[in-house]
UniProtKB/TrEMBL annotation:
The keyword Secreted does not apply. This is 1-deoxy-D-xylulose 5-phosphate reductoisomerase. The gene is dxr. Belongs to the DXR family. Residues 263-379 form the DXP reductoisomerase C-terminal domain. It comes from the Bacteria.
Amino acid sequence: MTQSITILGATGSIGRSTLDVVSRYPERFSVHAVAGGSRVEPLVDVCLSARPKRAVIADASKVVELEQALCTVGLGDIEVLGGPEAVSRLADDPDTDVVVQAVVGAAGVAPTFAAARAGKRLLLANKESVVCGGRLLMETVRNSGCELLPVDSEHNAIFQCLAGATEKARAGARIVLTASGGPFRGRTNLEGITPEQAVAHPKWSMGRKISVDSASLMNKGLEVIEARWLFDFEPGRIKVVVHPESIVHSAVEFEDGAVIAQLGSADMRTPIAYSLGWPERLDGCAKRLSLAEIGRLTFEEPDTKTFPLLQAAYDALAADNGATIVLNAANEIAVEAFLEGRIGFTDIFSTVRGMLESILAPLPGSVDEIIELDRAVRAKTRERLAVR
Ligand code: NDP
Ligand code: MG
């Protein structure tokens, strides 16, 4: 039977990799709907290759432009909708079986919850919604019967390593989250870094925001929080190790001393194919590993002094309040400012730290409260950066 797929963030790096895997299995998958943020041209390209029934653009002011562009290329029969609510409505559309959530940033919170409530198979790349939604998101997933499959390579690896582990085995296990270390690994002075240097990741080809997060180690901090909620492991049982080759995507260490790791080339099509096919395996078309060719794998402790945001993430998690939302929102605004050349790279650290110190937020009890807190922190961070 064909599975009907909706891809949110279809024009991005994960969205396109997903379309690539899906296109190889036309008898198994059909693309029902796609959503993008604000860029019309790439969304039209996606529509040309995937031929969805619906296309949504989160920036509602672009609806007419999108409709006209689709008509021009002979795709006038695609239903076009606009606005963030329309993105969330796609996530719980009864005509779709699988939602791929690859929106970047906290804009993904509402659609992730919508898909979770609808009890869909949810391929979750948008880690920011786990960082913000935490316990509440996991409760929603459990109550609806949503089948949540992590796409983030480390979490996909952990999911694979934990397959078949009993509750007791899980309870005594530790997660070993690998980090590439990013483009500035080994440096102790991060002054004068340009956006171009920061987005040039040595191993992975990704969107600009996550590339900067990888360079600052914020990405690993967000992933510690993501792992805490996805797998229900206390933070003290999640350890980060730097592994520059990016071959071991993460590991789980069991009580008897056995460590189970998942290896593969640095290609997101592998975790995407795994999540699409689960419990079967599909060909994600990634390059096959030759361990003999690789020869050597290395591991080292992260430099938390030069890259303080990893520890900031552990601290935010330990606070057990709204701090992870503050951390995420302040980081998103700071990264945006850095990419626009308005602040320096290390200003991202001081901005996030500053917002964490100045905003003491209680734990939100609902999705609306999460979104409200996220908005308030964004506004305050923008204010802080404007008066610098
Ligand atoms: P990209 O920047 O490449 O793509 C982001 C996508 O989100 C685009 O389709 C963009 O549309 C869309 N978008 C932006 N703003 C909104 C909005 N307000 N509402 C709806 N859609 C929006 O990001 P990535 O693909 O790199 O990352 C996506 C998510 O996956 C992130 O959460 C990231 O952390 C996570 N992830 C990514 C990995 C990777 O290898 N890239 C690995 C692991 C996790 P438009 O094109 O119009 O701007
Ligand atoms: Mg990752």
